[in-house]
Amino acid sequence: MQVDVALVPAELPYCPEVSVGVVIDVLRASSTITTALSNGASLVATFAEVEEARGWGAEAEGRLLGGERGALPIEGFCFGNSPLEYTKERVTGRQIGITTTNGTRAVELTLRQARTVLMASLLNIQAIVDYCRGAKDILLVCAGTEGRFSLEDAYCAGMILDRLGEIKTTDSARLVQGIYGQHREREPQQVLMQTVHGGRLLQLGFAKDVEYCGKVDLCPVVPLWDRGERAFVAVSGQDGEK
Ligand code: MLT
Asked: How far is the CA of 18 from the centre of ligand 1 (A)?
């Protein structure tokens, strides 16, 4: 197995096509989508733009919209981008549409590069690793923040590589392995709080989100892009590439 890493989405057009692309936006899009599916949402459609999400929401009864701009909720949407809002009571059996500044845009770009697209966070890391075990080649895509590198995404990518074990790596994969190695002995929640985007979320009053996003393996579900539905659906790690 070969594992490559795009440290920011702008690298994607230069990365070779792969069988599995894994989008990582720990704070908070991947954590939110993982939580919504783990709590029983029937699917989570993702959109790069607010107006696209609104259009999808208006196409059928009962669809719920969520997401953020500048980390804050979008006017008229049911949910913000706080994973804690996506409770069983609110999402079970519902179709959710989400648009975020970085994470859902990274999904759009990754769909051009990979046959299978998944979303990873610390919440579902082992399920992702189990799913990926039989894959020929994997590209981990760090969503970053407004085009720039984010430590929390690289840290999560490094943790995935650590758990995959014996693999062929690229230079960027070796870099994230080093980043994870530097922080291995620390509490994941502390690592997240000391990142730039973590600090911004703390300032905005989202400390509980940052704490929650650091809970490793809390939601053992794999968000898998369904090309027919044009949305993520939940599968398990055991359903993975053989
Ligand atoms: C994003 O996708 O841009 C992030 O999830 C931002 C946020 O923390 O809401």
From this structure: 25
Q: Which residues contact 112 (CB under 8 A, 6 or more apart)?
A: 12
Q: What is the Cα–Cα distance from 109 to 9, expressed in whole angstroms? A: 7
Q: Edge to edge, what strands does the sheet with 43-47 contain?
A: 64-67, 95-99, 43-47, 231-235, 222-226, 114-120, 18-24, 137-142, 2-6, 168-169
Could you tell me which residues come within 8 angstroms of residue 228 by beta carbon, excluding any fewer than 6 positions away?
none
* Tokens describing residue 223: 């968000």
Q: Which residues line ligand 1 (CB under 6 A)?
A: 25, 27-29, 68, 71, 81, 100-103, 143, 201
Say what the pLDDT of residue 190 is.
Answer: 97
Average pLDDT over residues 137-146: 97
Taking the C-alpha atoms of residue 105 and residue 179, their distance in angstroms, rounded to an integer, is 24
**What's the CA gap between 47 and 56, in Å, rounded?**
9
Whether 242 has a pLDDT exceeding 90, the answer reads: no
pLDDT at 166 over 90: no
The 10 Å Cβ neighbour count of residue 125 is 24
Cα separation of 102 and 222, whole Å?
Answer: 20
What is the tens place of the pLDDT at every residue in 87-133?
999 999 999 999 999 999 999 999 999 999 999 999 999 999 999 99
The atom number, within ligand 1, closest to the CA of 201 reads 8
| Peptide bond before residue 227 is cis, with ω within 30 degrees of 0 | no
